[in-house]
Amino acid sequence: MQIRRLGEVDYLDTWRAMQTFTDQRDEHSEDQLWLLQHAAVFTQGQAGKPEHLLVPGAIPVVQADRGGQVTYHGPGQWVVYLLLDLRRRGMGVRALVDLIEESVVALLGEYQVAAAPRRDAPGVYVGEAKIASLGLRVRRGCSYHGLALNVDMDLEPFSRINPCGYQGMAVTCLRDCLPPGFAAPTMEAVGEALLQQLQARLPAPVSA
């Protein structure tokens, strides 16, 4: 498993890089996890409907090839892209979704934040508020795209959309969910802990 820590990167450039990696990889290519942040951008998934994009203003909108509806990426949010050979790891898409959600729930538990997934609306929630979203694409048995976890960010742009296609859905971030007196972790600490949770749950490749 190769871990790439990319900092803040452009969405379009990163998306194209994921596509290129997936198209060019073979049975010997090492799987990768990309940890990064994006500058402010709205992305529409393949099922995205224009009516869920309310007032984007100056924030750019990108039509992506992931699953799901519209979401927002911005500074203070960790994004992890999972570039995995699912066949080699003996995984299906549902298993990967479950693994991502379980990893986020466990991570938030480290900070005494109780969270849970929802079957009717993929992602992770603290109460009724969404704290992490996910959207995947599988091509030639390999995944790309991944998850976005709101850590310490400006949540206002979420009010300009129906997050993940749900009108009025509340959105939160880790900063606002910490129990009283709990010291806020650094972005770096949260990012590394998230990578650890994901790696701990990924099944080993059947063959190199």
List the helices and strands and how they pair.
Blueprint: E1 2-9, H1 11-24, E2 32-38, E3 41-44, E4 61-63, E5 70-73, E6 77-85, H2 86-89, H3 93-110, E7 116-117, E8 124-126, E9 129-139, E10 142-150, H4 174-177, H5 187-201
Parallel strand pairs: 1-2, 3-4
Antiparallel strand pairs: 2-6, 3-5, 6-10, 7-8, 8-9, 9-10
Individual helix count: 5
Secondary structure: helix percent:
25-40%
Percent of residues in beta strands: 25-35%
Instruction: Average the pLDDT over all residues and give the rounded result.
Output: 93
Number of domains: 1
Can you characterise this structure?
With 208 residues, the protein is of the alpha+beta class. The protein contains five helices and ten strands, in the order E-H-E-E-E-E-E-H-H-E-E-E-E-H-H. It has one domain (2-201): BirA Bifunctional Protein, domain 2 (2-Layer Sandwich), CATH 3.30.930.10. 26% of the residues lie in helices and 29% in strands. Helix 3 packs across helix 5. It is globular.
Provide a concise account of the structure shown.
The protein has five helices and ten strands; from the N terminus they run βαβββββααββββαα. The protein is α+β, with helices and mostly antiparallel strands and 208 residues long. The mean pLDDT is 93.
Protein traits:
single chain; alpha+beta; 3-stranded mixed β-sheet; 10 strands; 29% strand
